[in-house]
Write a structure and sequence with these properties.
By secondary structure, the chain is α/β, with parallel strands linked by helices. 38% of the residues lie in helices and 21% in strands.
């Protein structure tokens, strides 16, 4: 009798599965995000909810070790989407270290940029990168993405890092205090704007953000194609009432090249229609979502998925 009851229940469930579109016809997607404490983890969860609630797709976010692991997961089709740094995505498709082979991933869109802030104080006599000659400059801890980019910027400006200026490898908090105390003349930071470290400085000091000249930015991006040009808008920071052209890394949502065009289109459309409007608005999850705009989204160091291109053409972000 129990077995008969089970078979009846099983038959009813199977029948519902095949007759109810919301059960049987929804494609299930996974999104590899990051670990708790970072931006990827909450934003990835929010994106999964948007997809789940506003499309005919199902989606779940999973906590991972972030960029390198996510490229491997998406490249191997063990995850459908992943949140990664643009420079890491570029190296994944090129098969460069830390990857042992090429991975077939493309970008759905850039989530948000992480510009390289070059910060000094009023009265230091520093208005351009060239003015850093002979100065004491903190470029973050050794081996960090910030330090690597700082060295590239300085070297492309013609600096000999051992002879032309004094380099300090201080953490973000140490750099803030060192600039306040006059131990260093300028600091490099790499993070999304507005960054807490710069806001900390601006709370008690008159800060200046040093821009990269457009021609130099183009030169560096040509040599290091995984970097992108980023403009920090005027008034992002107190008393910085001018736009600041920077170089930076990007943070992109990637997919496998073989993701269906229609699925990619639905995902991208749903996300950008729920950034700051509606019940599932991503801005309620994390303030970084304010930078999710079609104009920013198409600035990617790797190829965009055709389904994403279709959406961005519809909204005028691409021609």
């Amino acid at each position: 009798m129990k077995r008969l009851g089970f078979l009846v229940l099983f038959t009813l469930v199977v029948g519902l599965f095949w007759t109810n579109p919301s059960w049987g016809q929804k494609k299930f997607l996974t999104l590899a995000s990051g670990s708790p404490g970072g931006v990827y983890y909450p934003l990835g969860g929010g994106i999964a909810v948007v997809i789940q609630k506003t499309t005919d797709l199902r989606c779940a976010a999973e906590s991972t070790g972030a960029s390198v692991e996510n490229c491997r997961l998406v490249g191997a089709k063990e995850s459908d989407m992943g949140m990664v740094m643009g420079s890491i995505a570029y190296k994944a498709i090129q098969g460069e270290q830390p990857f042992e082979k090429k991975f077939p991933v493309v970008a759905l869109f850039q989530m948000y940029p992480a510009p390289e802030h070059i910060v000094t104080l009023s009265g230091k006599g520093i208005k351009s990168v060239k003015d850093l000659k002979g100065k004491k400059v903190s470029i973050d801890v050794p081996g960090s993405g910030c330090a690597v980019m700082a060295k590239a910027i300085l070297e492309e400006h013609g600096f000999n890092l051992e002879r032309d200026l004094t380099i300090a490898h201080l953490s973000q908090s140490e750099s803030v205090q060192a600039l306040k105390d006059g131990v260093v003349d300028a600091v490099f930071f790499n993070f999304a704007y507005p960054g807490a470290a710069v806001l900390d400085l601006a709370a008690t000091r008159d800060i200046l953000l040093i821009p990269i000249e457009a021609a130099m930015a183009d030169k560096i991006v040509k040599k290091y194609p995984y970097y992108v040009r980023i403009t920090i808008p005027a008034k992002t920071y107190p008393k910085v009432d001018y736009d600041v052209l920077c170089l930076g890394d990007s943070n992109v949502l990637i997919a496998n090249k073989q993701m269906e065009d229609e699925v990619a289109y639905k995902v991208v459309k749903a996300i950008f229609e729920n950034v700051d409007k509606g019940k599932w608005a991503l801005i309620h999850i994390h303030p970084i979502a304010s930078q999710l705009t079609p104009k920013n989204a198409v600035i990617s160091p790797i190829e965009l998925h055709p389904g994403a291109v279709r959406y961005f053409k519809e909204v005028g972000a691409l021609k």
